[in-house]
Write a structure and sequence with these properties.
The chain has 4 domains: 47 residues; 59 residues, no CATH class; 212 residues, Nucleotidyltransferase, domain 5 (2-Layer Sandwich); 44 residues, no CATH class. By secondary structure, it is of the alpha/beta class.
Length: 481
């Protein structure tokens, strides 16, 4: 059992004291056994607390026990300034050395009791006494822990091996940044949810990286999921580790867990979907603004049906280490829809719902809408570079079907996977041959057997003679003046 807080222990003392005083010897023994097991106190100390009927001593400010007066504090400030404002741990061993040197040179004269008090001060007391003097001088304050640190301490850690075949509804969540080559400024991000049991994947765009917006998007994603969300496992990002998300999970009845810091393999399920679904479909361009977020939302509305109903994936069944090699065994490939139907924990209502959706969706039409949305994303991302280019028209269903037979001959067909077109830059430095091009052409036509090196040498000699002639003319003009 973990340690209880001091406030809880004090409440137990007050609640048990009266019953302990009026109980028999055997009952007192049982009360002591329970109290020591819960509080972790020594039996003798617990007995004294219950006999007294009140809580133990409190730790807090004790102004009546202050040992150092104002004279000692003022002397400490002078010594601290003379030490070039070092910290208390460094100033503590320096106090007797610095006091002796300052007194020897006539800079300081301390009373015996003040000097004794300064030499007896601890490093913590020195820092407390200098707290008010440090702030006006711009001293560095103690760094407070970020608000997410308390959430991380309270959120249970779940590793890759800690799932133990959960029911559908326990998901891993992560954010994919669409920042392009630079992470400066604001850009759209994708919230990815992956179910552990079935591999069901949901994606939704976030216009900005903000915790309240995250909870609103998560609410919308939960509405379109075929099963009830039961668990929410995230990384240690501050957009997840905050009171807003924690309170949201508590009110929704979600099990809120996190992975270990800097251990991406703890979230291997969603990390795999980040690459196989999000990056493969959206690419690595930069998307920012409301227009790009809306285009991503239209893309994900078709992509979720195509991936969950028509994209089989492998699922790890187990792995064993044989010396330096790790042997992995996988289940047969299946779609998330098939795994959801095969799971005995899936309710009949969920089965009917997903079966009805599967009967109505057309994979080819979904793929066509995905290609159109991808091209729209590319146009939005490349618009500042390509200028006011006319956007290509979307192919009709007949053209798209006919193109499926020959699409393999064109290589990559996903617009988001094609590299961004680069505009060729014009010459930045001036052409050094602009002024002599006509002269060089005349020389070459007159004497075509001469090499380019000879022509360049003659041109340099001519420039040198020209500059020399101009300098001589200038000297003559100056002399005549």
């Amino acid at each position: 059992m973990g340690q209880i807080s001091m406030a809880t222990r004090d409440e137990l003392v007050v609640a048990l004291a009266a019953r302990y005083a009026s109980s028999s010897r055997m009952e007192r023994g049982r009360i002591l056994d329970e109290f020591t097991a819960v509080s972790g106190l020594h039996r003798k100390h617990a007995m004294r607390l219950l006999r007294a009927g009140q809580a133990g001593r409190r730790s807090g400010p004790r102004p009546g026990r202050r040992l150092y007066n104002e004279a000692a504090r003022e002397a400490l400030i002078v010594i601290w300034e003379a030490s070039d404002r070092v910290c208390g741990k460094r100033l503590r061993p320096l106090v007797p050395i610095l006091v002796e040197a300052m007194e020897r040179h006539g800079h300081l004269q301390l009373a015996p009791e003040v000097r004794t008090g300064l030499e007896a001060m601890s490093a913590a007391t020195i820092d407390r006494a200098l707290r008010d003097a440090r702030e006006p001088g711009g001293g560095r304050k103690r760094r407070n822990a970020p608000p997410s640190a308390a959430i991380r301490r309270n959120a249970p850690v779940r590793t890759f091996d800690g799932w133990d075949n959960p029911a559908p509804g326990f998901v891993e969540a992560d954010l994919v940044a669409h920042s392009g080559p630079t992470a400066k400024g604001s850009f759209v991000q994708t919230l990815t949810l992956t179910d552990i049991a079935t591999g069901w994947t949901e994606c939704a765009p976030l216009l900005v990286r903000e915790q309240h917006l995250l909870t609103e998007v998560l609410t919308e994603v939960r509405k379109r999921m075929p099963f009830v969300l039961l668990g929410f496992d995230t990384d240690n990002d501050s957009v997840f580790m905050n009171e807003t998300v924690k309170t949201y999970c508590e009110e929704a009845g979600l099990v809120f867990t996190r992975c270990r810091p800097y251990r991406k393999n703890d979230q291997a399920w969603v990390e795999q979907k980040n690459g196989a679904v999000v990056r493969r479909t959206v690419g690595y361009r930069r998307y920012e603004g409301l227009e790009a977020a809306a285009a991503l939302a239209r893309l994900y509305s078709s992509l979720r049906l195509f991936v969950n109903f028509f994209q089989p994936s492998f699922k790890l069944a187990g792995k064993a280490r044989d010396g330096p090699k790790v042997k992995k065994k996988y289940h047969p490939p299946a779609t998330p829809y098939q795994r959801l139907l095969a799971d005995v924990r899936t309710s009949e209502e969920v089965r009917r719902q997903v079966t009805a959706i599967h009967a109505t969706v057309d994979p080819v039409r979904l793929l066509q809408s995905i290609r159109v949305a991808q091209q729209e994303l590319v146009d939005i991302a490349d618009r500042p570079t390509l200028g006011e280019a006319v956007a290509p028209t979307a192919p009709t269903m007949e053209q798209f079907l006919s193109g499926l037979r020959t699409a393999w001959q064109e290589g990559e067909v996903r617009p988001t996977s094609k590299p961004k077109e680069k505009v060729r830059r014009s010459r930045r430095r001036p052409d050094p041959f602009v002024t002599v091009t006509a002269l060089m052409r005349e020389w070459f036509e007159t004497e075509p057997w001469r090499t380019s090196r000879e022509l360049s040498r003659d041109n340099q000699d001519g420039n040198a003679r020209q500059s020399g002639w101009e300098s001589r003319c200038g000297a003559v003009v100056v002399g005549r003046a």
